[in-house]
Design goal:
Blueprint lengths: L3 E6 L5 H10 L3 E7 L3 H11 L2 E3 L2 H5 L6 E4 L6 H10 L3 E5 L6 H14 L3 E4 L6 H12 L5 E9 L4 H6 L13 H17 L3 E8 L12 E7 L5 E7 L9 E6 L2 E6 L2 E6 L2 E6 L15 H14 L7 H17 L9
Parallel strand pairs: 1-2, 1-4, 2-3, 4-5, 5-6, 7-10
Antiparallel strand pairs: 7-11, 8-9, 9-10, 11-12, 12-13, 13-14
This protein binds nicotinamide-adenine-dinucleotide.
The site of nicotinamide-adenine-dinucleotide has 24 residues, from loops.
């Protein structure tokens, strides 16, 4: 089979990015869409000329659907992915891989049992600057990663949460700035550095305490087994969507990524590399790589290869986030 027939489940904000990427990909064709909202469903089905389903169970029962993209609220990622895998479909799930480690493990198990492919949408692993960082680290000339820091400072206000009421609630979003926005950068820092464990986390709601149950700001200290320390800060309280910053300290230099620009500081000085975005599909302030991830997902399926982003990758990020959510402290106040 060299072209897979794809269903997109969830016709909200991100679905258009998936659908455009599917349309650009040689090895996939959009065959169906699904949403519980009849208006959104009709609009999307009409726009792309495909069949629409109000119930995902009906879509995944179709024998001519090979794969589905899960673009629904976080709390539905695990149940819908598991049902689709059990129905014999390959699954590309939007991040996060479940709202708890238990959900992520159940998704990975369902993939194993069904023999179908499950992957998670960490598209920023495909950005030019992050691919270059990975090549430099794997090349070994700059030595091991011995520390780092990351900053995700974005703007998500009350309207964003009011537009989709599943956001900002523990039961349906599973958290906020960490599990929804900054998850990509946590995944990248973990992937590029080789992994770490959480030492401590702080979660606060600085701007949106009245509007959401969850955190709009979070910081974490992470450490690996060699003692390398990593600082992570994320907030939805910024004045605008600032470029993501990821700095890694290596034994023989530093890698500084700001948005899509990479600065390599080696023993002989600084070299600047600009990986300005090469596609209009996606967000313009950081991370337009859904198109690359989705093309690669189908190329690999057609070749019979494992996905680039494995269920274990998604599970590990969900584990770290869960630890942060369960152990987070609040700010310490000086006694009067
Ligand atoms: N990778 C990225 O950069 C990125 C960016 C944005 C969103 N996302 C992810 O995409 C997912 C969706 O986010 P969004 O911003 O599009 O949300 P959204 O609220 O705009 O859309 C979600 C859609 O799912 C539909 N839905 C709810 N329950 C359903 C069900 N049982 N069956 C079918 N459809 C159902 C809703 O009606 C809605 O249209 C989330 O997991 C989010 O984290 C990822």
């Amino acid at each position: 089979m060299d072209q897979l027939r794809v269903g997109v489940i969830g016709c909200g904000l991100i679905s258009g990015v998936h659908i455009h990427a599917i349309e650009e990909t040689d090895h996939a064709v959009l065959a169906a869409v699904c949403d519980i909202d009849p208006e959104k469903l009709e609009k999307t089905a009409k726009e792309y000329g495909v069949k629409g389903y109000l119930d995902y169970r009906e879509l995944i029962a179709q024998p001519d659907i090979d794969a589905v993209h899960i673009c629904v609220p976080h709390y539905l990622h695990a149940p819908i992915s598991i049902a689709a895998l059990r129905a014999g479909k390959h699954v590309l799930c939007e991040k996060p891989m479940g709202t708890s480690l238990r959900e992520a493990q159940a998704m990975a198990q369902a993939a194993k049992d069904s023999g179908k492919t499950l992957s998670v949408c960490f598209q920023n692993r495909y950005n030019g600057a992050t691919r270059r960082m990975k090549r430099i680290i794997d090349g070994g000339e700059m030595g091991k990663v011995i520390g780092g820091s990351a900053f995700v400072c974005w703007d998500r206000g009350g309207a964003y949460y009011a537009d989709s009421p599943w956001r900002g609630k523990w039961a349906t979003e599973g958290g906020s700035v960490l599990i929804n926005q900054a998850i990509h950068t946590l995944d990248l820092m973990k992937w590029l550095s080789g992994g770490f464990e959480l030492k401590s986390a702080t979660m606060t709601a600085k701007r949106l305490a009245q509007a959401i149950e969850t955190e709009d700001t979070c910081d974490m200290l992470l450490e690996n087994e060699s003692g390398a320390r990593f600082l992570f800060y994320c907030s939805n309280c910024a004045a605008d969507n600032m470029p993501v910053q990821l700095h890694l300290l290596l034994e023989k230099g530093q890698l500084h990524m700001t948005g899509e620009q990479l600065t390599v500081l080696g023993p002989t000085g600084a070299a600047f590399e600009d990986y300005a975005t090469d596609t209009k599909i996606g967000k313009n302030y950081w991370g337009n790589s859904h198109i690359h991830l989705i093309a690669d997902f189908y190329d690999r399926l057609v070749r019979g290869d494992a996905p680039f982003i494995l269920p274990e990758d998604g599970m590990e990020t969900t584990r770290l986030m869960e630890e942060a959510y369960l152990s987070a402290s609040t700010i310490r106040r000086r006694p009067e």
